[in-house]
Amino acid sequence: METTRINLQxxxxxxxxxxxxxxxxxxxxxxxxxxxxxxxxxxxDITDVIPLAxxxxxxxxxxxxxxxxxxxxxxxxxxxxxxxxxxxxEFEQLFSSLFSELNSPDSGNCC
Amino acid sequence: METTRINLQxxxxxxxxxxxxxxxxxxxxxxxxxxxxxxxxxxxDITDVIPLAxxxxxxxxxxxxxxxxxxxxxxxxxxxxxxxxxxxxEFEQLFSSLFSELNSPDSGNCC
DNA sequence: ATAATTAATCGTAATTTTACGATATATAAA
DNA sequence: TTTATATATCGTAAAATTACGATTAATTAT
Lengths: 111, 111
Prior knowledge:
2 copies of one chain form a homodimer. The first copy, chain A, has 5 helices and 2 strands, in the order ααααββα. By secondary structure, chain A is mainly alpha-helical. Chain A has a single domain (12-95), classed as Arc Repressor Mutant, subunit A. Chain A has a two-stranded antiparallel sheet with strand order 1-2. In chain A, a hairpin with a 2-residue loop joins β1 and β2. The interface between A and B is large, with 64 and 64 residues. The structure holds a DNA duplex.
């Protein structure tokens, strides 16, 4: 048969999956959307609009930050969160290349 | 303050998150890529190229199928899996509108 | 100096995910 | 009919996720 095993450790594979996982929750997408709708860095207002405990929102923010999708700057007693443009760009690129791969003409359509 | 609570049950929000979650694992992305690289419907060859137990691969296939990203047709003793074009299109659309939302000009870039 | 405020972190419980081997089921081959 | 094959499902264990309230740490206000 001689089928080559797939390398599950491929950099872009792992990174794409991690980014997808990071936005794989309604609350986290909502946070990104909320941040995008502001031209000023908002901070803990996020907690006000998300109907969850402060600690839970903080956890979701951490996930987004660790995935590189948002940035957070401490400003006094508050923390200023905003979108991470670089992370979003990377995300968009990885996804568009994934989609173009999945849409390649040699992809069958038998079912 | 008068801040409007975010509706976390929004159809597209929930659906986008579910799709993202479905591809939020390297194995599942690898399966999609493998399926796209074939012009014939392959079946259990997936199990051969993924270095995981058959039952585990089957579970991942189920996740992808339930998310509407692949289709599976039983053909005799084998099962023929292939990409679900409609699901992928939907995915692409939801993601592109999410990205354009996140890239809107009024989105701040203060950090 | 003390009190109030913001937000992260801790501890915890409930649920979900991921992986495995074993088993069941259904078809095809002998 | 019996045997082999492919694949789904079951049972289970370990780990991760999600949510919460309580606490802590840091800063600002009194």
